[in-house]
Every structure is written in structure tokens, then in C-alpha cells.
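Private note to self, pasted from the team thread so I don't lose it. C-alpha cells:
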């Protein structure tokens, strides 16, 4: 079974995300290292980081992953936001490194009308500066596939490939594929033929060896909608079968997979345990 986790809250302290992972029987987790809707954050105290690293090691958690701030836009055409985004991204890398995380997931950004090629050029420049300023960091930056809302880049595999091909240090980058996002972007995965065609295209354009993590989310909106709205596993337009294939596909047996699905049902029922149980059943586990 692939290492299966979810995005867990750090409310009350970073260690609380680990305790939630343990409670749900997860060997991995994803978290924010700060409020994702704010630029500034209080520095992580070294004793807190040390406690987190020690607890994660004791719990034998692997592939620990952070998602960066939603405000960062490395594709921004305006110099003020572009430089502010680089500065913030450097901090995100440093915080992930301090916590001993394996991966930092980031969206490529939005070109805001400058055009895809100009936006991609900007992302490459922003990534290059960020990695140069964090020389020696071991955390791997994962470019996330996107739904393509507005002028967001990353909704075509070619966008991701262009960034990976052009950056100065490609070995410090990988890819995180979000099932909801690629579906909303127009990549069908419903039938076995569609599933194989889409992942074959990913392999041809980017390379499956670059795929380091998966976000497992169903989609409220239909195929090709270009709208990013997550649903619980099997409760959206994608349906259960593609997730069953992902959980049993030997190509992804060691790839960490994270839920980013709604945390509660309308009646207040906690949904992470339900979605995790469903995925484990797909994999033949319990």
C-alpha cells in the first residue's frame, strides 16, 4: 500500500499534526508551516522544531511534506509582488528544512495577463533565485499540477515540464499531481483507458520518475471545468475507480499520497478517517 496521509492542522503546535497522523494510522502527513493566507509568520522556535523532528522519527513517519502559502506568486509580472513572493518562498523552504521535511509543495503561479511564456520565464527566474538563496537545503520543491483557474499556470503537463527543463538545479525539484486539479484541467482518468492515457502523457512529457507525491481529491466540478473544488473520495465527478487504480498501481506503491478533502460532513462527521478507510479498502488493506 502506498504511504497514505492527509493534510493535518498544526493548531496548538506542530507536533499536533504528528499526533493526528498517529491517531489515524498514517505513515505520512502534509501541513502548513504557517498561516497560508498571511505573508508573515513567527519564526519557528528551535526547541519546537527539535521536538517535531524527534516525534516524527519516533513515530517512523516518512515523506513529511509542507504546502506553501497561497499568496506566493512566482509568475507575477509586477516586480513588487514577484520579489515579495521570492522572499516568502525562501522562508517557506527554510521553515520546511528546519522541521526536517522531505517536500515542499508549491503552485507554479499565475501570469496575470502577461501570457503563459512570460509567466513560465518568471517562475524559472523565481525558483532559481529561491534555490540559490537556500543552497544546501535538502527539502525538495514539488511543483503542483493545477486546475487552471484564471491565469494560473500548471494546468498543462507542458508547463511543469518547461519549468523543470529550464531551472538551474532540476535535481532539487519534483512534481506533485493533484487528481482534482488534473481532472478539472481536462485530463480524463475515469476509465482504465483514460487513466493509462493520462499517466502515459504525464510520463512522456514530464516523466513518472519526477512524480514524488499525489494529492487524492475528488472533484465537485466536471471534467475540463478549470475550477478547483475538492470533494471526498467517490463523492464527486471523478468517482471511486480512479482512486482504486491509484492505490493498487505498482508504479505508485511507494509514492506518498495525501488527502486534501473536506474535513467534515454537513452533519459534523469527521471525514478524514472515512476517506482514509475507503482508500485502504481499495488497496486491500483494513
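Design output:
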Amino acid at each position: 500500500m502506498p504511504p497514505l496521509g492527509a493534510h493535518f492542522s498544526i493548531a496548538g503546535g506542530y507536533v499536533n499534526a504528528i499526533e493526528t497522523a498517529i491517531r489515524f494510522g498514517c505513515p505520512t502527513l502534509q501541513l502548513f508551516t504557517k498561516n497560508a493566507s498571511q505573508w508573515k509568520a513567527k519564526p519557528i522556535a528551535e526547541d519546537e522544531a527539535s521536538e517535531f523532528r524527534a516525534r516524527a522519527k519516533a513515530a517512523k513517519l516518512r515523506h513529511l511534506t509542507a504546502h506553501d502559502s497561497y499568496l506566493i506568486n512566482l509568475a507575477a509580472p509586477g516586480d513588487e509582488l514577484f520579489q515579495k513572493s521570492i522572499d516568502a518562498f525562501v522562508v517557506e523552504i527554510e521553515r520546511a528544512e528546519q522541521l526536517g521535511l522531505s517536500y515542499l509543495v508549491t503552485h507554479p503561479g499565475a501570469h496575470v495577463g502577461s501570457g503563459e511564456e512570460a509567466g513560465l520565464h518568471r517562475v524559472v527566474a523565481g525558483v532559481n533565485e529561491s534555490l540559490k538563496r537556500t543552497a544546501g537545503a535538502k527539502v525538495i520543491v514539488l511543483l503542483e499540477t493545477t486546475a487552471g483557474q484564471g491565469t494560473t499556470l500548471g494546468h498543462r503537463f507542458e508547463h511543469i515540464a518547461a519549468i523543470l527543463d529550464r531551472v538551474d538545479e532540476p535535481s532539487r525539484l519534483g512534481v506533485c499531481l493533484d487528481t482534482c486539479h488534473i481532472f478539472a484541467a481536462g485530463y480524463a482518468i475515469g476509465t482504465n483507458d483514460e487513466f493509462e492515457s493520462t499517466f502515459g502523457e504525464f510520463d512522456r512529457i514530464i516523466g513518472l520518475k519526477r512524480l514524488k507525491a499525489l494529492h487524492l481529491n475528488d472533484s465537485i466540478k466536471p471534467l475540463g471545468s478549470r475550477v478547483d473544488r475538492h470533494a471526498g473520495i467517490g463523492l464527486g465527478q471523478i468517482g471511486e475507480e480512479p482512486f482504486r487504480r491509484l492505490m493498487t498501481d505498482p508504479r505508485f506503491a511507494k509514492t506518498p499520497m495525501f488527502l486534501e478533502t473536506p474535513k467534515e460532513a454537513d452533519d459534523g462527521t469527521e471525514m478524514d478517517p472515512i476517506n482514509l478507510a475507503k482508500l485502504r479498502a481499495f488497496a486491500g488493506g483494513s
